[in-house]
Amino acid sequence: MVPAKVSTFLWQLQLDRVATKAGLLSRGFSLPDEGVCGLCVAELESSSHLFLYCKVIWQMWCEVIKREGNCWVMPQSVKDLLLLWPELKVKSDGVLWDMTPFALCWSVWVKRNDMVFNDKGFSAEAVWDMHIARITGWVKAWWHHCPYSASQFVMGIQHISMPKNKKGKSIADGDLAWFIGMVDDSSIWRI
Ligand SMILES: [Zn+2]
């Protein structure tokens, strides 16, 4: 249900192969800002910092865990997060729960790239809204008669029940275009 492009991104991220500033520095690039995270302007932008520990990102993960009725200690890396993720589920449908780190990490990356390459401001609210829109779009592209409205997804995925034993088609990137417009523009993906 998660587009291949996003699955690939998460796979690269858990291997720490996404081109964060720390990653570029380690490959010998010099950066005018010395690799500082543009969100907090305080720490080196490593993958674990950008996707887990940066203050605004950390708050979003905590919101997800709190909504689920659980508590946790933040794992040290995205790889550890993905390993731990199934154990953190309390209320949500497993399919939707599994989608959440994909949607959230991808939305962080898209908005971070918008900030770095397009001089746009970074808004945690926009990342939050985008990750819910993605989950909604992925579900609705797969489940054509989904009875839940977009606003019901916004109210919390823990209230959404996915159909059981439904044979779904896999989603091609183009299927999502109607919902998420140009935000997943391939020029971002090529960096
Ligand atoms: Zn930061």
Describe the protein in words.
It is a single chain. This protein has 191 residues and is mainly α. The protein has one domain. The two termini are 25 Å apart. The structure holds zinc ion. Zinc ion (ZN) binds next to loops.
State the gist of this model:
The chain has 191 residues and is mostly helical. It has ten helices and no strands. The protein has one domain.
Give the helices and strands, then pairings:
Elements: H1 4-14, H2 21-26, H3 47-53, H4 55-67, H5 78-84, H6 94-118, H7 124-142, H8 150-155, H9 177-180, H10 186-189
Helix pairs in contact: 1-6, 3-4, 6-7
The structure holds zinc ion (ZN).
| Poorly predicted segments | 169-191
Report mean pLDDT, rounded to a whole number.
86
Beta-strand percentage range: under 5%
Largest sheet, described in full? none
Distance between the termini: 25 Å
What is the β-strand count?
Answer: 0
In helices, the fraction of residues equals: 40-55%
Keywords:
single chain, 191 residues
